[in-house]
Amino acid sequence: MVKNLKTTAIISIKQPPIWRLHLMRGLFFLNFISLAFDTWPMIFSPQEQLDTLTGVTYSFWASFALLNLFGIRFPIRLLPILLIQLFYKSAWIIGTYMPAYANGQLNEDLHHFLKVCIGGIALNLIVIPWDFVFKYYLKDFFSIKLKFKSRNTQMS
After folding, report:
1. Residue 49 structural domain
2. Are 10 and 132 in contact (CB under 8 A)?
3. Tell me, what's the pLDDT at 14?
4. Whole-number Å distance between alpha carbons of 65 and 78
5. Contact 72, 26 (CB under 8 A)
6. Chain CA centroid to CA 86, Å
7. What SS3 state is found at 49?
8. Does the residue 2 lie in any domain?
9. CA gap 120, 122 in Å, rounded
10. Confidence tier at 2 by pLDDT (50, 70, 90)
11. In a domain, 26, yes or no
12. Based on the structure, what is the number of domains in the chain?
């Protein structure tokens, strides 16, 4: 009999409370709405030919919006989407905003997106079930277990 270890691991970890799942669904919905209305029209009816990087960007964000839609139905399964959002917004502040600030090259777009990032980071920090993230993703991350299977090979 073969056991599904992944399913067993998820079941043995206490699920977040229902109110936390509803908060996650709300954030997934907010992400979906804010991204879908900005990106899908550019995919289906662009006003002009998009350059490669812009096309990739819109395609990525449209896909990200769709994954957030799935997150409304399956908040635990799509939890990594919220982690991606938290990490990319933090990375943007560190890698884009802070160097522009240090070099005196801030503009209105950077200020506006900084506010968006800070709001998103705050929401993610509140909504993400951190005990679940620790137990399911991080607990065994640093423990390296090497399993070697011995083979009895016969040479002819």
Report:
1. 17-138
2. no
3. 82
4. 12
5. no
6. 7
7. coil
8. no
9. 5
10. very low
11. yes
12. 1
